[in-house]
Model the fold of this input.
Amino acid sequence: MKHETFAEALRGTAAPTREVDLLVVGAGFAGMLAAIEARRRGIDDVLIIEKGDDFGGCWRENTYPGVACDIPSHLYSFRRNPSCDWSRTYSPGAEIFAYAQRIAREEGLYERTLFGKTMTSADWDAGSRRWKVRTAEGDLFVARALASATGPLHQVKLPEIPGLDSFAGTAFHSAEWRHDVDLSGKRVVVIGTGASAIQFVPEIAKVAGKVAVIQRSAPYVVPRHDRTIPDWLRWAYRNLPGLRALRRTVHYYLDVELKKGIFTGAGHLRKAATKQALGNIDRSIKDPVLRAKLVPDYEIGCKRVLISDDWYQALARSNIAVETAGVAEVRADRVVLRDGTEIPADVIVFGTGFHVNEALMALPVRGRDGRSLRDAWTAIDGSIGAYFGGTVPGFPNFFLVHGPRTGSGWISALLMIESSVEHFTRVLTEAWGRGIDAIEPRLDAYNELTAELDARVEGMVWNRGGCASWYLDASGRNRLTWPGSHTDFDRRHRAAGLEGYEFA
Done:
């Protein structure tokens, strides 16, 4: 079969089957980093397919009012492609989206990406030792290696509420914001108090008539201390690389390495963080009844610690009410709580997060013997998992970028993704350089690493903090977070070589 060039493939006028060395599914930051790092290591025959119409992933999709990064801007950029133009300490979503577009242009990714392509299946063909990937649009791609970079935050989670279909108003998830809906003077019910709600509620409260916030459990919220970065300082970052590197290093040790004590131990740092968060409530909320509703009933760090300079101030507004009874049902023009309270509503906004564990389980990928990821994980122990670089036994040359064990409660996702893709591109190119067509982790190596990390995470606050967080799957296992610092994660990924893999 003739191997098409990129130009032929992108024109779409050649053969219906397109062959590449590495196919990347998803054009968010994970997919971008996978493609960039692969090309740096000599895999130039890389193609990205993306269901949307541009790069950016969740920053392209999430456009709700107030959307912004909750990681310091100078840590939320690629190590080799830093930005000197962030306008604030915590960048607005539009700036992050623009950054993704700029890096894609500079790295030549637009020429290597097909947009409007939704993967429907990926099957390993043992005979040809290739992945055969099909899309809803009728494409067939044949790839030596496959990187799934669809990310953990793309399948919205909507609660099953009796009567929701009967609601006569407008209801939508915050990740699918309806900009055509004018909230001015409207009665809005917000369900959820997570990382998105904490950003959009203060914004919609400025225009809505009434806002009822339905809170399942109170989050810990610490001040954001967001500031405008002045022009002179941005000039200095552009023209003094040492200063830019120093800023990133300072943020790294203060916001990444130092904060690990909140999650990994029960010492002074966790106590100090708890005191800061509770003090934030006391300073901001004068009403004792409201203040009591906002005090979390679990340990700090069990769920993601949120940052905001205006969350509590917004909840103290006269047009906002915080309800904790939970939703019993929805009627045509109101939301009914479990305690019988009826809240008239014109609009319902769900800030209820995403299906993370299930989104990974449901990926339409089949490895050896036609076994799906769900079947493979079920056969091992029933939970998601991965070896270094997001590799899974039984799935040759397959990599879950930003998959299991790459999350944390405080670390920039980009740091974890960079370390992961550096590992998988390194071992892949080393194997190919030695004439090895395919690699996959040995089951014993996978099980050994899984047991070690399970034991480490078991005593951490994510598992023992007394909350029901999305880190845990239905069996109570936490396979999403890495039980340590980024330094530990990076060191382990750099040290791991082909000794943990078997070859084809």
Summary: The domain at 6-55+109-155+355-503 is CATH 3.50.50.60 (FAD/NAD(P)-binding domain). Residues 1-15 have pLDDT under 50 and may be disordered. Residues 71 and 412 are 6 Å apart (CA to CA). The first helix runs from residue 6 to 11.
